[in-house]
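ugh ok so i messed up the first submission bc i forgot one of the chains. this is the corrected input, ALL of the components this time, i swear. 1154 residues overall. if the numbers dont match what u have on ur side tell me asap before i send this to the collaborators (the ones from the other lab, u know who)
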Amino acid sequence: MRASRFFISTLKEAPADAEIVSHQLMMRAGMIKRLGSGIYTYMPMGLRVIRKVEAIVRDEMNRAGAVELLMPVVQPAELWQETGRWQKYGAELMRVKDRHGRDFIIQPTSEEVITDIARTEIKSYRQLPVNFYHVQTKFRDERRPRFGLMRGREFTMKDAYSFDRDAASMKVSYQIMYDAYIRIFTRFGLEFRPVAADNGAIGGSGSHEFHVIADTGEDAIVYCPTSDYAANMEAAEAAPITLPRAAPTLALTKTATPGKAKCEDVAALLAVPLNQTVKSIVLTVEKEVDGKLDKQVWLLLLRGDHDLNEVKAGKVPGLADYRFSTEAEIVEWFGTPPGYLGPINTVKPVHVVADLSVAPMSDFICGANEADFHFTGANWGRDLPEPVTFDLRNVVAGDASPDGKGVLAIQRGIEVGHVFQLGTRYSEDMKATFLDENGKPQLLQMGCYGIGVTRILGAAIEQNFDAKGIVWPVSIAPFEVVLCPMGYDRNEAVKTAADNLLAGLLEAGVDAILDDRGERPGAMFADWELIGVPHRIVIGDRGLKDGKLEYQGRQETAATAVDLTGIIAFIRARLPA
Amino acid sequence: MRASRFFISTLKEAPADAEIVSHQLMMRAGMIKRLGSGIYTYMPMGLRVIRKVEAIVRDEMNRAGAVELLMPVVQPAELWQETGRWQKYGAELMRVKDRHGRDFIIQPTSEEVITDIARTEIKSYRQLPVNFYHVQTKFRDERRPRFGLMRGREFTMKDAYSFDRDAASMKVSYQIMYDAYIRIFTRFGLEFRPVAADNGAIGGSGSHEFHVIADTGEDAIVYCPTSDYAANMEAAEAAPITLPRAAPTLALTKTATPGKAKCEDVAALLAVPLNQTVKSIVLTVEKEVDGKLDKQVWLLLLRGDHDLNEVKAGKVPGLADYRFSTEAEIVEWFGTPPGYLGPINTVKPVHVVADLSVAPMSDFICGANEADFHFTGANWGRDLPEPVTFDLRNVVAGDASPDGKGVLAIQRGIEVGHVFQLGTRYSEDMKATFLDENGKPQLLQMGCYGIGVTRILGAAIEQNFDAKGIVWPVSIAPFEVVLCPMGYDRNEAVKTAADNLLAGLLEAGVDAILDDRGERPGAMFADWELIGVPHRIVIGDRGLKDGKLEYQGRQETAATAVDLTGIIAFIRARLPA
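and heres the new structure output, hopefully the right one now
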């Protein structure tokens, strides 16, 4: 490629709405252009990266035996009504009517369409297993699109759907995809981590997220450096504390804590460690029973130094549909404002549930259900009944790993892939069956597997950048090598050498671009450092006289002189096979 | 590829709604699957063809210096309001509101978005010319989707947009695209014809359509077999008839023609040639003048054997906004029902315009403006004023070519490409300017260039099929070669030879598929003939013993024995370089 035949458009400053580094750098490097909120044109430079990401994804999907097709962007509402997602999906689902007033959606994902295809195309167990995928434009009407390609509304996703005859076979298909994802993210050249994830409302038996590691990641991911354990924060289990509970040493005492509504403040006032305090979180569950609204109030107890895990709370029997109580509800039920609540001497009946780590506590501190007072010296069995316990909290660094093989660490990640065992979630609603060996209809067992193709670009940059710009891993860089001739338009020897080298590199299968725009060296170098091309070759008159070129890697601080005769081999050795 | 790892799904019968052969065969061959009216999933077999079409398109677009980007499917209404197309586009434009109630459209084309990009990205004449293209999903909410991929609602289009500094340079960019289209359609292996087209409402100075020739084509295209002249029916000019008008020989006579409202019937009754009759077509033009509706009635005269060209009619000064008059309007204005109208003795004033071919007539027959009567022996100058003439009719086979180099022929075509000189149609509305050498802002001169990627599939099949199924040109066939082993699952020699041959062909860059499904020969052959793979190699036990395989081209009636040792070279010789 020649820069004069390409379209390069760099900016000194990122627009004000670009809050994070990947968004800023993609805008500055001319990779994307904003069309509307969360909607971007992929400019030529950005599209090259997308195509390289897609090529790796396709290659590994095909190798794993998945078959590519292409499902439509605009999908009839009827299928989404069959699975109930037309009703449940909410405002993120972009709905549209055609000229006849019929309802359609702009697809955010394609479970319904692929299940519709499967129920007509898959007739016999002999056709199984099969895995279909497509790489297609998706739309999610995010409430607050931001961060460029990280949380856009229109985006490109690879989504695959496996169909199997039974759960055991489905798990095999799942593992094949899991392994393919490992290869894909490895080939991207990104540091990543697969983590166990919660199946959430979809149900089913297993799920993993693939996270690109980056300090700026939205998600906290949990792992054990000395074992294979890894999970996202929602799913990471807190191992039960096995130390026995110490015997009480203090009497239960109502202690004045005026104005100290937070555990941190109470602990400071009373000069005790934070982990000696217990915080109380109030939840409301409302149900219609015989036409009347039945309201339950739950009190969740956590150690003062721990945070509630809202997903885990929802798994406590009876709490599936909880919400946080309002301040007015709390005052009405407890007769005291939040900050002074506790499980002892409640005015009205509450369901008390304690986190696993609260049960082994003794002589602990909790709210006294009276403004400006806490109890100190509280003890289970003596001052209140033995607790009902669940795992309710987010794990913290240093917690024991649930596999017993070390302690947990926490890092930040950006979710770019998700694999899911769906089981019969969709096949049941849509009556997608096949005939088994006995000619009996059986529900198809499904898995689904997504990769956020355009999101990969944002994640890769969040992980790989410096003060000069983007530092692309070579496998997804827009170009592998840039040739920067010094005086291309006025020095015949330089021009000839540059033209010949470009031809030689292309011939050798190297994705090279020659900057023949006639920019001055400083501007030229700054452009390509911003764009993030991994390898740069400078062709100058002086070096040429000695048969030398200057090579510099994107993150190297100095150039290396390389013989003109050996430059192609030199570059090839620095590229993926 | 192995058939067992692919997804093959053929049908004996096409669904009832498939009216045309390409739709029937694509459904039967499992290339597409209907999701909704005019909305199809591209199944694995169909997607392979689409990808081959796209690859040829991209290759030639890149070679022509166009730069690929990707514009969004969902586009904000504001841009479409700037050009007025939000108002004018009508019901085909799929409109959608986001969660905040803002208006968007699902793009049928991207002039607005690319012009928006150009007006911010193109600052200087030094950046020109530039040509951007994308291959993207489009949506047009057709009133009556039908014919499978030929008139669908969701489809894939390649659209390119050139930007130039002046009209002369724009014409150069246009010619480059025209030439690229010639290469593209040649590489598809399809019989095609570029024809001059009408620019229509868009204005501008030039336009060509590219038609795939097929008897079933929707469009009549006009060409001169002995010259380069070619145009679509709308644009094909009728050369003026240069023969002098013969002198009158008959008196004007009101002649009874009871119940004969058509020229054909009148000619038969009076035993004269049809081209001696003149038909009258009544048009209405309504305009608001000073708040009042001014209604004009026009009478267009054509020879009885000719058809009105509605596009040409719209170009007559004063007729830009015409519509056909209703029967009630005709009765009111002429005092007689349609079928007996004519230019002589009209009750109320009408604007009379005659086609070029009507002016040289003498002793002609026309309606007498009285039910069941025509005039015979009508003559210009004597019975009515000399006519105002325009080219108003569709040309017919045998007409003189307007370039004077022969006579016109007509064939049927399917429009699959369109190139367009837009001029400043969009840049003016959207104020898309660049700075010229003198630092003065100038409007960008634009061209746009479309290829209906998915439509190509339908058109290719309409042109290339037989009783057995599709006959793909090799360059866009889903596979180039199919290997059909006889007893793959039970004959070790056959299996080994088939596996080795597949590996050898893939190694040689041949896109081959091995049918290892274990189907019986008859079913296997029928599947691949239906799917339309151009080359078939049968691997049988008997032949192998003599070192022979059986080759048969898709349209050959008998097989050829080929040496196993030479088979790869044999096949390579039959494939595009």
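quick check: Chain B touches chain A through 48 residues (CB under 8 Å). that seems consistent at least. Chain B has three domains: 48-236+410-461, 253-390, 479-572.
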